[in-house]
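Many introductory courses stop at the sequence. We go one step further.
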Amino acid sequence: DITMILNDKTASGNIIGRVLLIEESGVYVYNQRTERIEVDNSNYDSQFIYTMLNAPAIRDRIIKQSQGNTQIYVNWTTISQTDYLVPQFSEQRKIGEYFANLDHLITLHQRKHYLILEDIMLNNINKMDLFYDYYAQWITVYKEGAIRKVTMDKYLLTQSWIKQLAPELRVCELSRITYQKLLNDYAKSHERQTTMDFHHQLKGAVLDAVDEGLIERDPTRKAIIKGKKPRHKKIKYLNQFELHKLLSNLDLGQEINWDWFILLVAKTGMRFSEALAITPKDFDFSKQSLSINKTWDYKGEGGFMPTKNQSSIRKIQIDWQLIIQFSTLVKDLPEDEPIFVSGKVYNSTVNDILERHCKKAEIPVISIHGLRHTHASL
């Protein structure tokens, strides 16, 4: 028997037509997105069928027949009515065994990699080590390669703060008092919410140290989160009248500029990185919609990147005025290239332009992200 996922959502996108596992027997609960395929073992080899259905060429062919607009999906009828070229049974078995052995070999190598990392962690850390050294190794083993760069940078910043605030604190000295002192020292220069984030990033490593027997009791239990008085918060959104004044102040000429970018973000509520990644191909002028399916890596070397999460992939309805304006603006531009990007882009550049417009229109100064808040509030 083979269990196949017809449709599923993951961090990396939709899994469509992915074969999950092969089992000789067992009891399973299947939801509406899965199918169990019974293989005639006298004519077909299960391992071969598993390998064949997972082949990129087969999956691509199935996906091309998928249905749906906002969320594409595949049904069993599509898969069962697709023709597959299958060799004789003896050849199937040879191919199936080859790829089964290959999968097994890859799994062993992956497992060996993590066992080596775990061995390094356990053999090189002891109770007398400095806490920031332990934290650095903990990040390497548990976080490196598993989280996005922007999140990794936050963990590395936390590591630097530990070294700065508690350079002589050892793992064995972590108690509720020493941990609370570390939080208090951090809170002297940070607001409460930032201190809470700092605490959460520390807690994972500390609890693992407890599990490994390096610390007897959980020092994070009942931790008190403090913080300095919040600074005056800038206004984060405009009301309808203020937005109208801002849009009336924009210089919307015959060519693409940052004022067009401001208009598009204000009317769609896109994130900054999503708006940078918009290409002419993303517009569906006939259906008055805009497809959000990628972001632009403006903090790094540039280039397209996945959206923040799966739910960020969406289609936005846009008004007829925006349709007319952008259909003219992008008609001669390359279909798959970003409309607004030509070289390195800085968030501050666009925010400065927006600030000048806000001051000229005599309305509160907001950021580009404030336009997203404005769109949501309206």
